[in-house]
Amino acid sequence: MSTLWRRVRLWLVLGLAAAPWLAAAGLVISVLAAVLAPLATLGVGRVVDGLGTADAERVTSGLWLVGAGIVVAVLQSVSWPLVWSFVEDLGERYAHDHVLRVVAGIPTVAHHEVPEMADRVALVRRHARHLGNAGLRLSTDLSALVGTVTLAGVLASIAWWLTLLLPAALLPAWASGRAFRARMDAERDNAQAIRVADRLQDIARDPATGIEVRCSGAPATLLAAQDTSLDQRLSAVAAAARRTRALASLSRLAWIAVLAVCLVGVFGLVRSGSLGVG
Predict the structure, then answer these.
(1) CA-CA distance, 273 to 160, in Å (whole number)?
(2) Each residue of 204-229: b (16+ CB within 10 Å) or e?
(3) Structural contact between residues 52 and 33, judged by C-beta atoms closer than 8 angstroms
(4) Model pTM greater than 0.70?
(5) What is the DSSP letter of 162?
(6) Given CB 3.0 to 4.6 Å as the disulfide criterion, which of 147, 166, 180, 278 pairs with 34?
(7) Gap between the Cα atoms of 185 and 180, Å rounded
(8) CA-derived radius of gyration, the chain
(9) Could you give the CA distance from residue 266 to residue 278 in angstroms, rounded to a whole number?
(10) What is the membrane topology listed in the Swiss-Prot or TrEMBL record (predicted)?
């Protein structure tokens, strides 16, 4: 089984297994809202154009699109906290159980003796709670994908070159994802800093070692060691952010430039009469 398929399978399991019917209902509502949002905007344009040309059929179809968009938007706003709060709670419990089974099922003691494996286990434990949000993130990502495809169709119905807005808008998203991956890589490469800090706190809290720490005047030493370890991690994360900052800025500037050109083009079509006001 490939690594990509394992990741997709794990994502689907964590997102849907805890509450499949509830998560599926929330997913369907989110996808419908993502589809109808751009269509409702198109419906407003059809209503405006229909009123300008006295086209009753065009007005009616536009009103249907607007009405459907409003109904689904209201349904989503009402159901969102009800559905996803339960899915998140159940997903968090399921994720904790899954992580516990994985960690307890390690057949060796390598995760105690090998630093790299210990760091990976500590990282999984620390992010176990966030795994409960897999269903919500799955819904958000799928809705964004479907909404993007729908928006592409709406833009193409106006002018084919307006679809260039989509790849231009994906540039900042790609840059943000690259920055996020760089940060996660830096955190993973320096996960031992968190493990060291946790271990130092355990030493200070444990009754057997804590009394020795206090009697020997070692708190300052422990604090300095913890700060040094965490500062190294912070420096690595900051360096990753600096490496991706220029790309993020340039991608946003490119998106703004393409958007400005498209707006000027649309205004030109409206003034020439090739495109309706709606």
Answers:
(1) 17
(2) beeeeeeeebeeeeeeeeeeeebeeb
(3) no
(4) no
(5) G
(6) 147
(7) 9
(8) 26
(9) 11
(10) Multi-pass membrane protein
Rounded to an integer, the average pLDDT of 243-271 is: 82
**Lowest mean pLDDT segment, chosen from 68-82, 141-155, 201-215, 220-234:** 201-215
Contacts 24+ apart (CB under 8 A), 202-208: none
Number of domains making up the chain:
2
Quick check: 270 and 277 in contact, CB under 8 A? yes
d(CA 71, CA 59): 18
Tell which of 123, 158, 193 closes a domain: 158
| pLDDT surpassing 80 at residue 3 | no
As a whole number of angstroms, the distance between CA 140 and CA 75 comes to: 16
* Cβ-contact 133, 91 below 8 angstroms: yes
Maximum Cα interatomic distance, the chain, rounded to a whole number of Å: 90
Q: CA 108, CA 34: separation in Å to the nearest integer?
A: 47
Q: What is the pLDDT of residue 150?
A: 83
Tell me if residue 108 falls in helix, strand or coil: coil
Dihedral through CA 171, CA 174, CA 178, CA 184, nearest 10?
140
Domain that holds residue 41: 1-158
Q: What is the pLDDT of residues 24-50, one digit of tens each?
A: 888 888 888 888 888 887 777 777 777
Query: Given this model, what pLDDT does residue 1 score?
Result: 53
What span, in angstroms and rounded, lies between the C-alpha atoms of 106 and 67?
A: 55
Tell me, yes or no, whether 192 and 86 share the same domain: no
The domain boundary, picked from 139, 158, 177, lies at 158
Asked whether the predicted pLDDT for residue 4 surpasses 70, the reply is no
DSSP state of 1: -
